[in-house]
Amino acid sequence: MSLSGKVAVVTGAGSGIGRGIAQRLARDGAAVGVWDLNLDGADDTVRLIGEAGGKALAIKADCSNAAEIKAAADRTRAAFGAINILVNNAGIAPFVKYLEIDDAQWDRIMAVNLKGPHLCIREMLPAMLEAGWGRVINITSSSTQSGSPMQGHYVASKGGLLGLTKALALEFAPSGVTFNMVPPGFIDTPMLRASPIDIDGFAQSTPMKRPGTVEEMGAACAYLASDDAGYVTGQTISVNGGRYMGSA
Ligand code: NAP
After folding, report:
1. CA of 172 to the centre of ligand 1 (A)
2. Which domain holds residue 124?
3. What is the pLDDT of residues 87-114, one digit of tens each?
4. Ligand 1: which of 10, 15, 89, 120 to mutate, most ligand atoms within 8 Å of CB?
5. Rounded distance between C-alpha atoms, residue 195 and residue 115, angstroms
C-alpha cells in the first residue's frame, strides 16, 4: 500500500501491536507519530523505523489526557504536517473478578480504552474533515465478539469503542473520513505474555493453531489506511486466525 505523503499517529506504539502497526505504516511511506506512555519503548520503535529507512517521531503522551494529546498532536504536526491517519491502539487489559472491580479501576479502563480514542479523534478529526480525507482505525478486541471472563470493564470499554466507530462512520460517511476497527484475536505481545492466558496452549485450540503476529495486525491497518479502502467504513477486519467469524 502506498501511504507516501501521509502523516499517521499510532497510540501505544512503544510496544506490541502498536509498534507493529507503526513499523508497517512507516514502511508504506507514512511519517509516523509514535505516541506512548512509555517513552523508552517509543524511542525503540522510532529507532527500528529509522533503521528501515522510515520517518517517525517518539512522543510521551497519556492518551487519556486531553492536554497531553493536544501537545503531542502539535509536535507531530510541527514535525510532519497535518495528521491524516489515526490508529487508536493504546489500551490496558487487566483481569479482575467482576465483583472485585473497584470504581477507580473501572474509571481508568474507560479513560484509556474509550475516552482516549474519543479525545484523539476529537483533536484530529477537524483537519481531516477540512482536507476531505482521513482514516481512523480503532483497535478493539475479539473479546467484544466472544466475551471474556474477569474482564467485564475491559470488554465494556472495547464494546463502547465498537459503538463509537459505527456511529462516527455513519455521521461522517460523506466526508472522505472513514472509521473502521481491527479486533485482534490472540496476538503475541508483551500484554498477552503478562496476562493469565496460556498463549501457546490457547493457540492450539484456535483454528490456525498459532497466535497472530504484530505484522499481521500492521497489514490489516495498512489496508484500512490506504486509498484502496476508500469505500470501506464502519467495518471490522478481525485478525484472529478464524477463532470468531461473526461480523461485529
Ligand atoms: P502492549 O504490548 O501492552 O502495548 C500497549 C502499549 O500501550 C504499551 O506500550 C503501554 O504502555 C501503552 N499504553 C498503555 N496505556 C496508555 C495510555 N494511557 N496512553 C498511551 N499509551 C498507553 O499491548 P498490545 O497487546 O500490543 O495491545 C495493543 C492493543 O490491542 C490494546 O488496545 C489491546 O487492548 C488490544 N488487544 C490486544 C490483544 C492481544 O492479543 N495482544 C487482543 C485483543 C485486544 P505501558 O507498557 O507503559 O503500559
Report:
1. 27
2. 7-229
3. 999 999 999 999 999 999 999 999 999 9
4. 15
5. 23
